[in-house]
Specification:
Membrane topology (chain B): Multi-pass membrane protein
Helix content of chain B: over 70%
CATH topology of chain B: Sodium/glucose cotransporter
Number of strands of chain A: 0
Largest sheet of chain B: none
GO molecular function (chain B): D-glucose:sodium symporter activity
CATH architecture of chain B: Up-down Bundle
Shape of chain A: elongated
Largest interface: A-B, 48 and 63 residues
Strand content of chain A: under 5%
Order of helices and strands of chain B: HHHHHHHHHHHHHHHHHHHH
Number of strands of chain B: 0
Main location (chain B): membrane
GO cellular component, one term (chain B): plasma membrane
Oligomer: heterodimer
Number of domains of chain B: 1
Number of helices of chain A: 6
Helix content of chain A: 55-70%
CATH superfamily of chain B: Sodium/glucose cotransporter
Keywords (chain B): Membrane, Transmembrane, Transmembrane helix
Distance between the termini of chain B: 29 Å
């Protein structure tokens, strides 16, 4: 076939697209969303646990399952926010053009 | 991975405003992720592979979540209620070795060659025939599976919440359409990571309360040993060759059929999974993607198996004509019996999230294969990159609409859908043969890929639909027949590939760089990123650690 597609074509195409890609620079950090949602869910379900009726507790084999699940989710959410705070999103590395690399790297 | 059968109508959950608030918040967050991810999409690489820039823990959790769809969760709980602790085989031998093999052995070829999809690797290693065949079959299978998922969701939602089926299909379809069209793969992956944690928050309370209701693990074990026999609570009891067991498989077909052929076919060549690893930011992160996923996979079995076993104790007639409950109802039944409002909302949200993620994984891999492998290579070539981003968004919308159509079709022809699914599942098996021989044998010729795919698929189908269904050989269950068909497909594919290779021209050696074991692709020389040399990030340690842990998990269930 005339338009034979080889690995070199693919490597060139993807390398070029990678240099133009904006995901690394612009995509938000998912830890913020997981942390936020689980803190919110944790608070809601924990409150449901504090106000649980006897019927709720009897249904769940005598366990105040809302309280425990709520606290668990709250802790998970806080851990994600803590992780984000301790290790903030790394800024993307400055783009290095392949040509510059060759010139600076000696031998 | 099978279509759930119909849930009994009396499974209606006592949901209230609190549960719906929790569900509503989730839908808002799902859309928010799509909107926020939109600004990160500039090139087609951003849209289809997240610009190959995500960290390993994100792609790893997405890798496991893409597999942890609701059909898998309900299906494996059903499996446990029916067959007992045999379910562990689908995890410890039927997943971990394949995931580790993908990470340690195959990922350098996939990621290093910079292919965007699994079929694209076949194009580089073999020829256009193998590429086009696998692309078209994958695209068709992805739409079918997405549709079946959507239909399964509609049945469950109708039984649990009382929504009419069409409402559930249209609402779930719309949300998946919206967030993938907006944010592409990044949006799908981020939602999968979120879904992973929500589904854990749903399954853990069900498992804990379920165990408590039957008197703990000892109570569960004693009562099932009494009612179902001692083998029900073991992994390997009764699997000797020639002995009878409910699974209809012996240790050899379990190890070869499930553990080797079926599992390696699914985990190492199914693009809906591999795509997650290809979006990682470097080779080390891509290798660690399935390895990080392996650790939760080892333990998730307890969260689906225990609810299934508990249901088998609480409703001894489950799955038989004496009970309204099907095996698939195990988890919804426990939700109804044990969870108060609040946690119930979390569980409903987790289940819906799992259905949507299962569908989204298929849609986001479908749009990549359709755009990069079919449209860009055979239909409209050499256009500017922005055109393919626009086309990717358009085909996402078309794909979702097609799966909505499939879901409505499935509601009237569910048997046909089940057949089609079996049919497509047989295609994974020869895919694995072709990959493994292509990666390890330089001499495998350009034409051998296509003929290996055809021969393997045909052999597996003949074995299943003719030899097994017509009763020529006696295999007691569908599962057992699946395992044997997979082995037949593997052997036939391998034999035909070797035979065709001997009579046709090999691919020139300089076109095989980085595609065959023992060669390196030009782009693979990149140095490891900073921090990737830490001991806990070494792929070999993670991989072998997972294998040893999975083997150790068998010990308490083997005697």
């Amino acid at each position: 076939m005339s338009d034979h597609y080889s690995e070199r074509d693919l490597q060139r195409e993807i390398t070029e697209l990678e240099s133009k890609s904006t995901t690394a620079a612009r995509l938000f950090d998912i830890r913020r969303i997981i942390g936020g949602l689980f803190v919110l869910y944790g608070v809601i379900v924990t409150i449901a646990g504090f106000t649980a009726s006897d019927a709720d507790i009897d249904k769940a084999e005598g366990v105040n399952i809302n309280l425990w699940t709520g606290l668990g989710m709250l802790i998970l959410g806080l851990l994600f926010l803590l992780w984000l705070w301790l290790r903030p999103t790394a800024p993307p590395p400055p783009p290095v053009l392949p040509d510059e690399k060759k010139e600076t790297g000696e031998g | 991975m099978q279509t759930p059968t119909y849930l009994a109508a009396e499974l209606r959950l006592p949901t209230n405003w609190l549960d719906y608030t929790i569900l509503g918040i989730y839908f808002v967050v799902v859309l928010g992720i799509g909107l926020a991810a939109r600004r990160s999409v500039k090139t087609s690489l951003d849209f289809f592979l997240s610009g190959r820039s995500l960290p390993a823990w994100v792609t790893g959790l997405a890798f496991i979540a893409a597999n942890l769809g609701a059909t898998e969760i309900l299906g494996m709980a059903a499996n446990s209620a029916q067959y007992g602790v045999y379910t562990t085989h689908w995890y410890w031998i039927g997943a971990i070795p394949a995931m580790v093999f993908l990470g340690l052995v195959m990922m350098p070829f996939y990621y290093g060659s910079k292919v965007r999809s699994v079929p694209e690797f076949l194009l580089l290693r073999f020829d256009r025939a193998a590429h086009l065949l696998s692309s078209i079959l994958f695209a068709a299978a992805a739409i079918l599976i997405a549709g079946v998922n959507l239909y399964a969701l509609a049945i469950v939602v109708e039984a649990l919440l009382g929504w009419p089926q069409w409402v559930a299909i249209v609402v779930a379809g719309f949300f998946v359409l919206a967030y993938i069209t907006l944010g592409g793969l990044s949006s799908a992956i981020y939602n999968e990571v979120l879904q992973f944690f929500v589904i854990l928050a749903a399954l853990i309370p069900i498992t804990v309360l379920g165990l408590k209701s039957v008197g703990g693990w000892d109570g569960l074990s004693d009562s099932l040993t009494e009612s179902r026999g001692a083998d029900f609570m073991t992994s390997w009891g009764g699997t000797g060759i020639g002995s009878d067991n409910p699974l209809g498989a012996n240790w050899l077909t379990i190890v070869l059929g499930l553990g080797f052929v079926l599992s390696f076919g699914y985990w190492t060549t199914n693009f809906a999974e591999v795509q997650r690893a290809l979006s990682a930011k470097n080779l080390s992160a891509a290798q660690r993607t399935p390895l990080i996923a392996a650790f939760p996979k080892i333990f998730i079995v307890f969260l689906v198996m225990i609810p299934g076993l508990v249901a088998a104790v609480l409703v001894p007639q489950i799955g038989t004509a004496d009970s309204d409950l099907q095996y698939n109802d195990a988890i919804p039944y426990l939700m109804q019996q044990l969870l108060p409002n609040g946690v119930l909302g979390i569980a409903v949200t987790g289940l819906l999230a799992a259905f949507m993620a299962g569908m989204a994984a298929n849609v986001s891999s479908f749009n990549t294969v359709f755009t990069a492998d079919i449209w860009q290579k055979y239909v409209v070539k050499h256009r500017e990159d922005a055109y393919y981003v626009r086309f990717g968004r358009l085909i996402t919308a078309i794909g979702v609409l097609a799966s909505i159509g499939t879901a409505f079709l499935a509601s009237s022809f569910s048997n046909i859908m089940a057949y089609l699914q079996t049919l497509f599942s047989f295609f994974n098996v020869p895919m694995f043969v072709v990959f493994i021989i292509g990666m390890f044998w330089k001499r495998a010729s350009m034409k051998s890929g296509f003929w290996g795919l055809i021969a393997g698929t045909t052999a597996a189908m003949v074995n299943y639909f003719v030899i097994y269904k017509q009763g020529i050989i006696d295999i007691p269950t569908d599962q057992g027949a699946n395992f044997v068909s997979a082995i037949a497909g593997f052997v036939a594919g391998a034999v035909v590939m070797v035979a065709v290779s001997l009579f046709t021209a090999p691919k020139p050696a300089d076109e095989l760089q980085g595609l065959v074991y023992g060669t390196r692709s030009p782009g693979m020389a990149e140095p490891p990123a900073e921090g990737d040399d830490a001991w806990y990030r070494k792929p070999a340690l993670l991989g072998w650690g997972a294998v040893i842990l999975a083997a150790a998990c068998y010990i308490p269930f083997s005697f």
